[in-house]
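hi support,

uploading two proteins for the ticket. first:
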Amino acid sequence: MTNSAASNWPLRPCWPHCGRAPARVQQVSLVDGIRYGLAPDPAALALNRGLMEDLVMVGLAGTVALELAGYEWPDLALAEAAALELLRRSLSDPGEQAVAAAYLQVLRARTAATLRRSWTEVQVVAAGLLEHGELGAEELGHRISCAQHLRGKTLN
């Protein structure tokens, strides 16, 4: 992966197929979590529902992954409160505001489904984080690409 490709590595490899630009991940760390190139702007997220949902799902992914692996997460309520706050700041319609908690549960279920589908990538990134403590965008992209390649080879 070249440096220019690494700086544009998407959070979710859907673009250009899904029609929206991805969030740019700068670094993932065991201590600080995910650091984006730019902080999410709630006004922009209100206009781009897909990106808003992706960011809320990323906020939920850590706790959902631990649950899928069979671990307890002591700050589950805190993580869900942060995701709910981002969701509420991004929703402009009062009707949507009223059902934000239910919307969060739907996104939580989608997060679990996405993690199950991508469990190989999750494990490879987790191993890198345990080994190094943090991964930059290029390292993260490389590990995910390798995991996808290996899965493709073993399934075919």
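and the second one:
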Amino acid sequence: MKAETLHEKSVTVNDNRHSEIEQVKKQLELCKHQDQLLEEIEVLLHEMKKIALYAAASKLPSHESEHLNNEILKKQQAIHVLEGKLLQLQSTLYLQ
């Protein structure tokens, strides 16, 4: 009878470990996705900086300044979308 009890405990422990391992794997995948989103944001920020530095160093006609400003605004909007995805992902990560 003791052997059965020990076996049952062993199965339960193994099931718990398997469940924990699966949970950690899911968290790792979410963290990888989070890192990817942060990298995309970083790229957009660097692009915005390049545009701003170019505009600041140049005497541009108003139509070109307006075009560059629109490019920066598009990149800001893309960043806001990525931030939303990031927040969603973080809430998923913390709810687990």
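thanks. also noticed: The helical segments are 2-57, 62-95.
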